[in-house]
Amino acid sequence: KAGVTQTPRYLIKTRGQQVTLSCSPISGHRSVSWYQQTPGQGLQFLFEYFSETQRNKGNFPGRFSGRQFSNSRSEMNVSTLELGDSALYLCASSPETLYNEQFFGPGTRLTVL
Amino acid sequence: AQKITQTQPGMFVQEKEAVTLDCTYDTSDPSYGLFWYKQPSSGEMIFLIYQGSYDQQNATEGRYSLNFQKARKSANLVISASQLGDSAMYFCALDSWGKLQFGAGTQVVVTP
């Protein structure tokens, strides 16, 4: 089975722009979660989607949004980018088994200039 | 509120030796899961081991074992027979209702 894929792998944007990141989960996985990783704040949960519905949400401003499509692929959007949004954005999919193991993708490294 | 703590920012360990990475947590949920992930410099998070709050036995996966002490709210990872490829950042994570909360991580460097 193919793993979780994320595109693009690297992205450079300027302040004020918006960006869309994409995540394709492992085939058969319906849950997709997004995390932001920065040196200062560490790994923080952004949101989780399951069957096209947002099921969980972390403490991020409304500039961060996401969606999930019927094929379980997910996108994350950040509007009005700020310098502090520079981070590694990780996507994870879960098979919804007993212990909900999450499988991570390679991440998208976003740099905001 | 839930909290997960890794108090060791970094550790050096000699090849072939064992190393223990500390993790303590705080949660009021009766049912939860604890994960350990490895993150090499490439950035990808690699699942290592899982312990459920109701599991009676400590989890083991190859060279990885989890020392789970529920009353003390600790879930320490033991890596036996360290290899050079074990050099990475290690994260403990608490899963509650599908949301993973990560600790700050411990950087492990394995030396020859």
Report on this model:
The complex is a heterodimer of chains A (113) and B (112). Chain A has 113 residues and is mainly β. Chain A contains no helices and eleven strands. In chain A, the strands form two sheets. In chain A, strands 2, 4, 5, 6, 9, 10 and 11 form a seven-stranded mixed sheet that branches. A four-stranded antiparallel sheet of chain A has the order 1-3-8-7, with no helix packed on it. Chain A starts with a strand and ends with a strand. Chain B is built from no helices and twelve strands. Chain B has strands at residues 3-5, 10-14, 19-21, 24-26, 33-39, 46-52, 60-61, 64-69, 74-79, 88-96, 99-102, 106-111. The interface between A and B is medium-sized, with 27 and 23 residues.
What is the element layout, followed by pairings?
The complex is a heterodimer of chains A (113) and B (112).
Chain A: E1 5-7, E2 10-13, E3 19-24, E4 31-38, E5 42-50, E6 53-57, E7 64-68, E8 74-78, E9 87-94, E10 103-104, E11 108-112
Parallel strand pairs in A: 2-11
Antiparallel strand pairs in A: 1-3, 3-8, 4-5, 4-9, 5-6, 7-8, 9-10, 9-11
Chain B: E1 3-5, E2 10-14, E3 19-21, E4 24-26, E5 33-39, E6 46-52, E7 60-61, E8 64-69, E9 74-79, E10 88-96, E11 99-102, E12 106-111
* Biggest sheet statistics of chain B: 6 strands, mixed
**Span of the ends, CA to CA of chain A:** 37 Å
Helix and strand string of chain A, N-terminal first?
Answer: EEEEEEEEEEE
Percent of residues in β-strands of chain B:
over 45%
How many strand elements of chain A?
Answer: 11
> What is the straight-line distance between the termini of chain B?
42 Å
Largest interface: A-B, 27 and 23 residues
Report the mean per-residue pLDDT of chain B as an integer.
93
The oligomeric state of the chains shown is heterodimer
* Helix content range of chain A: under 10%
State the helix count of chain B.
0
- The helix/strand class of chain B is mainly beta
Residue ranges of chain B: pLDDT <50 for 5 or more in a row?
none
Mean pLDDT of chain A: 93
From the spread of the alpha carbons, the general shape of chain A counts as: globular
- Rounded to the nearest angstrom, the radius of gyration of chain A is 13 Å
